[in-house]
Amino acid sequence: MDEMITLAHGNGGRRMRALIEEIFAPALGRPDTQADAAAIALPEGEIMVTTDGFTVQPARFPGGNIGALSVHGVVNDLAVSGATPLYLTLAALIEEGTSVALLRELVASLGEAAHEAGVRVVAGDTKVLPRGQGGGVYFTLTGIGVRTPGCPPGLSAIRPGDRLLVSGPVGDHGIAVMLAREDFGLRGDVRSDAACVLPLTRALLPLRGLRFMRDPTRGGLATVAHEIALATGLGIELEEANIPVRESTQAVCAILGYDPLYLACEGRVVAVLAPEEADAALTAWQALPGGAEAAIIGCIGATPGPVVLRTPIGGSRVLPELEEDALPRIC
Amino acid sequence: MKEDFTAAKGWLERIGELPIAHPVAVMNVCGGHERSLTQLGLRGVLPPNVKLISGPGCPVCVCPEEDLADAIALALTGDVTLVAFGDMLRVPINAAKGEVRSLAEARAKGADIRPISAPQEAVALAASNPARPVVFFAAGFETTTAPVAAMLAQGVPENLSVLLAARLTWPAVDMLLASGDAALDALIAPGHVAAVMGASEWGFIPERYHLPVAVAGFSANSLLAALYSVLRQKLAGKPFLDNCYAELVAPEGNLRAQALLAEVMEVTDANWRGIGVVPRSGFALRGEWKRFDARARFEFSALPRRRAGEMPPGCDCAAVVLGKKQPDQCRLYGTACTPQNPVGPCMVSDEGACHIWWQGGTRAAA
């Protein structure tokens, strides 16, 4: 195999076959690379489909890389929908000049994440983009899963007084990627929370009071709160003191002027539950490896209103919808 | 671990127990304080007679419009790489419609402009591109100016120069109080500026104006301790300079930083956007460092610009900076002026009161 990806790796010929056979197929459990389409078997239930593109820069960051991240992203969207993820398809857009070693590492990581989540990559495509027309490596994945119909029931089932839970500290992924970009000359020990949330979502599915789950990715926790408020027409109150934020993440946010409530997570779940089952959900999460720092962080209001953050000194402020990209603070 | 709010709640209780019979207006000079107290929702939990008023401590907000226009014009020549603290990039100038109105727009037109967060990044960039002139547009208060002085004192590549728009904080407060129309009863002095320049720099407030003052940090605990202090002073009628940020702020400040500032720069009269010239409130490079002054190295267009130096029509940023208006009393707030489409600098910076209020969820007054 060559050291660099060239346009010839996308030409349909020998080099492209080598790329697929030597890098992709072994890492992905050797799917049938000859067929034009894959046949899949699905168990009984409601079939759920999701798709997502991944363009994170840089491709490697503390706590993960674009390969594992893209599996987690798609698997997590199925998981919070109550589905058991089963199959993935993968489209890889690779920029000419990308190092083969890097690509190998990313695809291996993608394969491992898929294996750990119990999903199989059954179909795929690779394209090579001329230098300057892509940003290294992009992955687009489609995920297929199956769930018990109506479980969880969704946004329309949310009622006044329902509780909001988050499965762990927020904002780590956003800060980890920002630090990895080295735009700010800052160093920190913040690692991305990127992970498969399937164990967390499975733990809540048996609870009859479970209304809704979502993974707070772009826009963070505050944005999920806004999505809930918009869909239900009800106000939301969040307790700042109860929202888990790592000290290291908080410190970088303080320097750069970011609010961790608006920063992306890639391994957290926000859940809405009937008040009488909030404690049971919390206990279930806290017993799991990714849920030790889970917390009940707020509640759905009785009337229409904004998303309000109750501050630890008894004050409150409205959490506005995310509107702009934050900029580093001046002093 | 989260900040412990036990002490802060204690101060809040003690403030609540003070017999404040008449409205007391307290100016928090620093934009960082405004940010902290807005984020804490402090105004909503204080006794109704305690009014918190944000002050002039936003370097982006007071950076002269003509300096910004010069930086934009220089970057647009294409002959230099311009670096600036990120906050400066979106600040609009009074250019005619269709012309470039901000560094961000200049960048979109192809000018080589890069946001930085520390002077070392400017040095590193200049060192790695020795053939390319790099201009550091350095707007800021003492807290950011001292590192600029340190950068120059340590030696910088010859291709680096500085377009300085640095300001001293206290002279603007002095001018505001001397004007007699400030209607303030007490002040909270900026913690980071005091850490550099010394708490004692703020002693003029009780001495000359007989008003209470306390230096505060940025935690709820420090801010509320300072607020309690100035309210107590006011009630007792015995104003003095208190320091509620003693863990970081010494009476004499950081002497090394001050020595560097004095070595590299001299204090000059300086223009503040929308406010005018404040005596002895700016810095200029001195001595051997004059040759790193971008103004000495590059031609700046002397073409007269329409409305140069003024605030945009309808914009109350100057009144907001001076504490004479609250952000939502500006008729542009949330209507013509939003963070996506800022008219004035106060809606751009993380330390601008309008931007902080917007981020804190305050929308246009009904």
Automatic annotation (TrEMBL), chain A:
Any single Pfam family the record assigns to this protein: AIRS
Superkingdom of origin organism: Bacteria
One GO BP: protein maturation
Start and end residues of each PurM-like N-terminal domain: 35-146
PurM-like C-terminal domain span: 159-306
CDD domains for this protein: HypE (cd02197)
Assigned protein family: Belongs to the HypE family.
Name of the molecule in the record: Hydrogenase expression/formation protein HypE
Species per Swiss-Prot/TrEMBL record: Acidocella aromatica
Automatic annotation (TrEMBL), chain B:
Keyword Iron: yes
Listed GO MF terms: 4 iron, 4 sulfur cluster binding; carbon monoxide binding; iron ion binding
One GO BP: protein maturation
Database matches in Pfam families: HypD
Domain of life of the source: Bacteria
Alphabetized UniProt keyword annotations: Iron, Metal-binding
Record InterPro entries: Hyd_form_HypD, HypD_1, HypD_2_sf
Family: Belongs to the HypD family.
Name under which the protein is recorded: Hydrogenase maturation factor
